[in-house]
Amino acid sequence: MDISGFDLSYFASEQMKELMESAFSLNLYPNPASEILNIEITPSDTGRILLEVFDLSGKAVINKMVANEPLMQLDIKDLAEGAYYLKITQLKNDQLFRTEKIIKIKN
Length: 107
Fold this sequence. Notes:
Elements (H helix, E strand, L loop, with lengths): L13 H7 L4 E5 L6 E7 L5 E7 L5 E8 L4 E4 L6 E9 L4 E10 L3
Antiparallel strand pairs: 1-2, 2-5, 3-4, 3-6, 6-7
């Protein structure tokens, strides 16, 4: 999925700020990361989650569907060093949960 030309300013919109203040919480670590990014979303009973990683040009570089568990891990070791956006969407209601900036560093 290539979304070149995607407006990255969307990630900083008022809608995103409201979603960030929802009843759910997100913990990403380590960030920066070299190989594995740990993702914790609470509560963890929110069903299936779509994890998408976009480079700064808006191109999707990772697209992974997972069951929301207490600890999810995303393998980023094959990504080039740099900044990316991680978009997390709840599939049961097709609702954007959160978008976070992540940093990939050398192994």
